[in-house]
Specification:
The protein is an alpha/beta fold. It contains eight helices and twelve strands. It has a ten-stranded mixed sheet, with helices on both faces.
């Protein structure tokens, strides 16, 4: 894992998210690209280039944010892009190769009932890059305990596990796996992919209506530093990813959430 992209919003928690990303990058020897998108149009009939002004203001905001944190030994680079967040992220990924996106759960939302804001939610829903969401004010600490929750041990994407494998290689955490048997499961779902087997510290099999309910039932047992799930084409979490905003009543966690992009 070499390149981490950190989209910066306008919330007061943006600095905390950036510091988390830098602390994490320092431990795994990765680069951090701090990113902010902007939209503007030049005004007709005037010599003022609004785009240029907003670009300068965006870069100033990013520099101010970086100057406010401890960059440690991490290479931190600034990226400002004209356009929407999603198309900009796709362009950055195509040019640089992004291994992980780290974003605040709320993005630009200040509503207390929101767990996953529109920006974070759209990145989960519409990109093929793994996303690590960080709760507001959560302070980074070395990852020693991971809870990976899923409803099928089949992993069809060859790259889906790369971020978790990199974390396991660097930190050697316990990787406790929770396989949730939901209604209409297949016996083949109970067989773990060989890459999951290689990561596994322990395996618990439970029966619940949804994967989320399984997580709720077993979360306190493990008290993980990191909760990890897949974004698949079916299942409870897929229903969450259908929309950009996720309410706390639908799902929430007080720990960082790593969303792997499996098929």
């Amino acid at each position: 894992m070499k390149n981490i992209l950190v989209p910066i919003g306008s919330t007061e928690t943006a600095q905390n998210t950036l510091q988390y990303a830098i602390d994490f990058a320092s431990d795994i020897n990765a680069n951090v690209f701090v990113f902010r998108a902007y939209k503007a149009k030049s005004k007709a009939g005037t010599m003022i280039n609004v785009d240029a002004i907003i670009e300068r203001e965006t870069n100033l905001y990013l520099r101010t944010m970086v100057n406010a944190v401890d960059t440690k030994n991490v290479t931190v680079k600034l990226i400002s892009a004209r356009g929407g967040v999603l198309e900009s992220v796709e362009a950055i990924d195509e040019e640089l190769g992004v291994d992980l996106i780290i974003v605040n759960t709320k993005s630009n939302s200040i509503k207390e009932e929101i767990f996953l804001g529109a920006t974070a939610g759209s990145l989960v829903k519409k990109t093929n890059i793994a996303v690590l969401t960080v709760p507001p004010s959560y302070q980074y600490k070395t990852i020693t305990n991971v809870l990976l929750a899923f409803k099928s041990g089949i992993v069809r994407s060859k790259t889906a596990l790369f971020p978790l494998q990199a974390i396991a290689k660097q930190f050697s955490p316990e990787v406790n796996m929770l396989l949730v048997k939901t209604p209409n499961h297949n016996d083949s779902d109970l067989v773990l992919d060989k890459d999951l087997e290689n990561l596994k510290t322990s395996l618990t099999i439970t029966e619940n209506a949804t994967t989320f309910q399984g997580v709720l039932e077993h979360f306190k047992t493990y008290e993980p530093d990191l909760l990890c799930v897949f974004r698949r084409k079916r299942g409870f979490f897929t229903k969450l990813w259908e929309k950009n905003t996720v309410l706390k009543q639908e799902f929430h966690t007080s720990r960082p959430l790593l969303i792997l992009k499996g098929e």
